[in-house]
């Protein structure tokens, strides 16, 4: 698949290497083009410096490193005030280093004097976020949205390729990680999905993007241990109060993609014995809801039926 991240001429470069002109020297004559015009698409940092300025020699490389790490979402222009004294006067540069940031043709941020590396990184990150907010979804977010649409349409191959592209640029992007896990689950590759999920940090697992993944994995594992559907159906037909067999049937049906039938089986257990197995049928329905998501039509309808049973 042709890469879609960073492929456009006006999109921030998301490839491993930064664009050649990401950091450039400029002058009074080129200021309008290099700064004002360029800032119409992405924020542009202007670093006013001079060869004799000690703090400039420390700040400049830090700025360049942070800008290159943003991979095209922010650009940088360096102005030597010794060679561009008229421009420095017009912009009222009274001491150096002085840094201005322009976006959409206007100055939006800036500072004077040396700064610690953490402040420089935060400065560039604010500009990156402002640029993405002003220009709509970032290329990464666009790729995630396309991948999610492909997954919902059942095209797991295209979805997995797109999610993988995103992860090449942002290895801990939670939406892409969750989406790739969803592809493995949709393809029935439970082993790979479980290994990938187990490898996530605890902090990542707390992200809302993974709200249903753990539940889906648990349900898939339970389905594998539930038994064969025909045999379980025979057991239930022979004894309608064999709640364990009906519970196992629900898990096997769910693992086979028959979610409605699985929910109906658990609801039937509750109709016959609401407290069976320490309220096991209700708890399992809650796991179903978590796996399906709160807005899924089946979640909404089954939750309504569950409420009717509990409060009847």
- Based on the coordinates given, report the CATH architecture of the largest domain: 3-Layer(aba) Sandwich
User: What value does the average pLDDT take?
Assistant: 87
Distance between the termini: 55 Å
General form: rod-shaped
Largest sheet: 5 strands, mixed
Percent in strands = 5-15%
Can you tell me the CATH superfamily of the largest domain?
Glutaredoxin
The CATH topology of the largest domain comes to Glutaredoxin
Counting structural domains, the number is 3
Question: Any low-confidence stretches, pLDDT <50, length ≥5?
Answer: 6-18
Number of strands: 5
User: What spatial order of strands do you see in the largest sheet?
Assistant: 1-3-2-4-5
Class from secondary-structure proportions: alpha/beta
Helix amount: 55-70%
Specify the CATH class of the largest domain: Alpha Beta
Radius of gyration: 28 Å
Order of helices and strands: EHEHEHEEHHHHHHHHHHHH
Please give the count of helices: 15
Protein name: Thioredoxin
Keywords: Disulfide bond, Electron transport, Redox-active center, Transport
GO biological process, one term: response to stress
GO cellular component, one term: cytosol
What are the defining features of this structure?
Thioredoxin_domain, Thioredoxin, 3 domains, Serine Threonine Protein Phosphatase 5, Tetratricopeptide repeat, alpha/beta, 312 residues, Thioredoxin_CS, redox-active center, Glutaredoxin
Structural write-up:
The radius of gyration is 28 Å and the shape is rod-shaped. It has three domains: 23-134, Glutaredoxin (3-Layer(aba) Sandwich); 139-205, Alpha Horseshoe (Serine Threonine Protein Phosphatase 5, Tetratricopeptide repeat), CATH 1.25.40.10; 222-310, Tetratricopeptide repeat domain (Serine Threonine Protein Phosphatase 5, Tetratricopeptide repeat, Alpha Horseshoe), CATH 1.25.40. The chain has helices spanning 31-37, 54-69, 85-90, 117-134, 139-152, 156-169, 174-186, 190-198, 202-205, 213-226, 229-238, 243-255, 259-272, 276-292, 297-310; strands at 23-25, 44-49, 75-80, 98-103, 106-112. Helix 5 (139-152) packs antiparallel against helix 6 (156-169), helix 6 runs antiparallel to helix 7 (174-186) and helix 8 crosses helix 10 (213-226). It is an alpha/beta fold. It has a five-stranded mixed beta sheet with strand order 1-3-2-4-5, with helices on both faces. Helix content is 59%, strand content 9%. Strand 2 (44-49), helix 2 (54-69) and strand 3 form a beta-alpha-beta unit. One of its GO terms (biological process) is response to stress. It comes from Pelagibius litoralis. Pfam families: Thioredoxin (PF00085), TPR_19 (PF14559), TPR_20 (PF14561).
């Amino acid at each position: 698949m042709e890469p879609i991240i960073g492929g456009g001429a006006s999109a921030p470069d998301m490839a491993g290497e930064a664009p050649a002109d990401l950091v450039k020297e400029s002058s009074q004559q080129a200021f309008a083009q290099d700064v004002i015009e360029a800032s119409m698409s992405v924020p542009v940092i202007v670093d006013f410096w001079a060869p004799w300025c000690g703090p400039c020699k420390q700040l400049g490389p830090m700025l360049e490193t942070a800008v290159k790490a943003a991979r095209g979402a922010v650009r940088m222009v360096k102005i030597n005030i010794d060679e561009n004294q008229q421009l420095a006067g017009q912009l009222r540069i009274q001491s150096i280093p002085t840094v201005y940031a322009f976006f959409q043709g206007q100055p939006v941020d800036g500072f004077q004097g040396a700064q610690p590396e953490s402040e420089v990184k935060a400065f560039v990150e604010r500009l990156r976020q402002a640029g993405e907010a002003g220009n709509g979804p970032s290329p990464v977010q666009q790729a995630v949205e396309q991948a999610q649409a492909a997954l919902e349409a059942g095209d797991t191959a295209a979805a997995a390729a797109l999610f993988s592209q995103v992860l090449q640029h942002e290895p801990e992007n939670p939406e892409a990680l969750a989406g790739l896990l969803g592809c493995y689950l949709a393809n029935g590759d439970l082993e790979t999905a479980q290994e990938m999920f187990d490898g996530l940090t605890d902090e990542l697992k707390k992200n809302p993007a993974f709200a249903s993944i753990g539940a889906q994995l648990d349900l898939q594992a339970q389905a594998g241990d539930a038994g064969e559907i025909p045999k379980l159906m025979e057991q239930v037909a022979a004894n309608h109060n064999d709640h364990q067999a009906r519970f196992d049937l629900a898990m096997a049906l769910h693992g086979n993609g028959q979610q409605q039938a699985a929910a109906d089986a658990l609801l039937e257990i509750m109709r016959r014995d609401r407290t069976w197995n320490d309220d096991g049928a209700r708890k399992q329905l809650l796991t179903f809801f978590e796996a399906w998501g709160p807005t899924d039509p089946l979640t909404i309808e089954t939750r309504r039926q569950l409420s009717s049973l509990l409060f009847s």
